[in-house]
Amino acid sequence: MAAGPARAAEQDEDRDPGAESRLQAGFDATIGKDQRIEPRDWMPEGYRRTLVRQIAQHAHSEIIGMQPEGEWITRAPSLRRKAILFAKVQDEAGHGLYLYSAAETLGADRADLTERLISGRQKYSSIFNYPTPTFADVGVIGWFVDGAAICNQVPLCRSSYGPYARAMVRICKEESFHQRQGYELLLTMMRGTQAQRAMVQDAVDRWWWPSLMMFGPPDGDSPNSAASMAWKIKRHTNDELRQRFVDMTVPQAEKLGVTLPDPQLRWNEKRGRHDFGTPDWSELKRVIAGDGPCNDERVARRTAAHEDGAWVREAAAAHAAKQAARAQARTHEGAAA
Ligand code: BYC
Asked: One cellular component GO annotation, for this chain's record (predicted)?
């Protein structure tokens, strides 16, 4: 159901048949002038639905995304690495929370979104369905996955929906720290033993193609892009952002001393960009459909955490009810005095 002000606008429409086209014209003008749509504003139902879909998936990705690296918190090789990793994983939890709050401004219900995630009715990023067998994976996730997140999310700071765009500002600052900590970890490992260098190269080989898939299917197979671009929810297409990520990452790989596992990767002087090979799109489809290496494990763990946390939600709700009852009693006392 539409949120408060939007609902009031719908009631106006019931009385005045021209109202919807005027509301639509106002919305189009706001988008045309590159201004923000806010929760109180009227918006087309498709815009609201697209935002809830994308923001919820984004929030789910942040929360599920805590798992692959979280597995290494108890096994980090030093206190310093443990503290950094702990902080990073906590940041991802914070990102999930801002994003669920942004979805709530659109009338979505947080408990319902969680239910949709654990029942498989809503998606989360394919990238978090791959395993993290070595500590080099922690570094490569920071470098590639947070690097890809920066390419994708910096433009989202200019997304047309105010609460989503504003949430992205802080998230991007934190992703930037995450990317650097990953790269710094890898630089340290590359200065270590031959076995450590081989471990980094192995992680790079495993994460490169899944990282390119994070940007979504190629533009020709992206059913949501056209509308999202017209509404300025997305500012660049999936392929544009993928290209940006490749161009950003190649010189970093050279500096690090690793090889990116793509024989077709080369600089194209004419385009002023890198040419690169085609990801295995059938793999992306399989992983999104639930058949990746760790899908079952990730969802089972999220489900267990949700069930284990029931008492916390119940206690918080009981506390809030008690506070509200006390506040009401104080109001009555005040009125009686
Ligand atoms: N994985 O029409 P398309 C992080 C789905 S976490 C799974 O191109 P759209 C981090 C897509 O949803 C941040 N599903 O869609 C955390 C759609 O399905 P539905 C992760 C994918 O929305 C912890 C269908 O395929 N980032 O940084 O226009 C540790 C067709 O696609 C994927 C975000 O969430 C995928 N890779 O564009 C470290 C960014 N790709 O919904 C780091 C926000 C596509 O129609 N999201 N699908 O059933 C976006 O920017 C856009 O939603 C996408 C897809 C570019 C991902």
From this structure: cytosol
Show me where the domains of the chain are located: 25-292
Contact 64, 302 (CB under 8 A): yes
Q: What is the pLDDT of residue 169?
A: 95
The ranges of the chain with pLDDT < 70 are: 1-14
What number does the ligand 1 atom closest to the CA of 50 have? 22
Specify the pLDDT at position 1: 42
Contacts of 77 (CB under 8 A, 6+ apart): 135
Nearest to 99, CA basis, from 115, 86, 118, 113: 113
CA 47, CA 236: separation in Å to the nearest integer? 17
Query: Residues enclosing ligand 1, CB less than 6 A?
Result: 53-54, 57-58, 61-62, 65, 92, 123, 125-126, 141, 145-146, 149, 152, 213-217, 222-225, 228, 234, 238, 288
In this structure, what token pair is assigned to residue 237?
Answer: 């297409």
61 CA to middle of ligand 1, Å?
Answer: 9
Q: For ligand 1, what atom is nearest to the CA of residue 215?
A: 55
State CA 283 to chain mean position distance.
Answer: 20
